[in-house]
Amino acid sequence: MAVSAPKDKRFRRARVSPVARRDRGRTLRVYVGVAVLTVAILGVAYLAVRSFLTVDALTITRITVSGNTRVSRGDALALLDGLRGRNMLLLNLETWRMRMLASPWVEDVAIRRVLPGTVDVAIEERQPVGLGRIGDAIYLLDQRGNVIDEFGPDHAEFDFPIIDGLAMAAPREAGAPVIDASRAALAMRLLAALHARPDLATRVSQIDVSDARDAVILLKGDTALVRVGDEQFIERLQSYLDLAPALRREVPQIDYVDLRFGERVYVRPQATAARVQRVQGGGE
After folding, report:
1. Which of 99, 125, 151 is the last residue of a domain?
2. Residue 120 covered by a domain
3. What CA–CA distance (Å, rounded) separates 190 from 184?
4. 112 & 243 share domain
């Protein structure tokens, strides 16, 4: 007699699907394929970028220079030596800009890339406004009182007042002289004021700023030193010119005239340095 045993649901045969193993194999092949494709894409991209970076349009073959008057094109190109033949996309513009700023005549410069293969250099030059006498040499000065260049035959067109007293001593053997900032500031303020009065500016021969609080002016054709302080330069200089005829009648040989005290004008004769004659109002 056949006896059937009851089924125990706690014991079941694991269902092993061969399909799962096939799925893992397929996934592995996909990963490998993706990796191979990625490497191939990167390789192609590298070759494309490398080819792009070496195209002629990106190789610097031309340099244009503008805004230069005192800096010759040859001098500018000498400062940019080594720029030609470089790739313009890999160019560090600031490095080359700093090279241009090494020129004493260059106040500022802008450098930009221009396709194909061109670098444009726009120069802003320093503008000389005066001549500084330091030691035995004379230097061109810009509007900030900085030394531009030593004055020479190439600068004969500049007819500026000579400024004394800018530095404590003559320049070192190597390099530009060291300018006292406060004295230079006084000189530049005076020159700026004179710029607004060309009629007076053309009459100024020399300026002394040894005292940073008292500028002294020497006019063309006049031996008197005119002390104008550190403000109201034009008003005081004009006052001297208005008073000069009366002052000369009173004191034919004037050492200096001090105009720093409002309506009071102090005059020192050349022959008696210890005596100070005070001229009230118009000096009458």
Report:
1. 125
2. yes
3. 10
4. no
Residue 40 lies in a domain: no
Do 241 and 247 touch, CB atoms closer than 8 A?
Answer: no
Q: 92, 125, 158: which is the final residue of a domain?
A: 125
CA–CA gap between residue 54 and residue 85 (Å, rounded): 10
**Strands lying side by side in the sheet with 214-219:** 147-150, 137-142, 128-134, 162-164, 204-211, 214-219, 225-229, 254-261, 264-269, 277-279
Helices (H), the chain: 18-53, 73-79, 93-100, 181-195, 198-201, 233-250
Q: Are residues 194 and 100 in the same domain?
A: no
Which range marks the domain in which residue 95 is found?
58-125
User: What's phi and psi for 128, nearest 5 deg?
Assistant: -70, 140
- Confidence at residue 278, expressed as pLDDT on a 0 to 100 scale: 42
Buried b (16+ CB within 10 A) or exposed e, 65-100: beebebbeeeebeebbeebeeeebeebeeeebeebb
Q: How far apart, in Å, do the first and last CA atoms of the chain sit?
A: 162
Cα separation, 70 vs 273, in Å, equals 46
Q: Which two tokens stand for residue 49?
A: 């970028």
Q: Left (φ > 0), alpha (ψ -120 to 50) or beta: where does 232 sit?
A: left
Residues 166, 191 within the same domain = yes
State pLDDT tens for residues 73-129.
999 999 999 999 999 888 899 999 999 999 999 999 999 999 899 999 999 999 999
Q: Both 82 and 167 in a single domain? A: no
Give the CB-side neighbour count of residue 136, counting CA atoms within 13 A: 2
Question: Coil, helix or strand for 67?
Answer: coil
Looking at the 3D structure of the chain, how many domains does it have?
2
Residues 86, 166: Cα–Cα separation, whole Å: 44
Report the C-alpha gap between 236 and 179 in whole angstroms.
Answer: 26
**pTM higher than the cut 0.90:** no
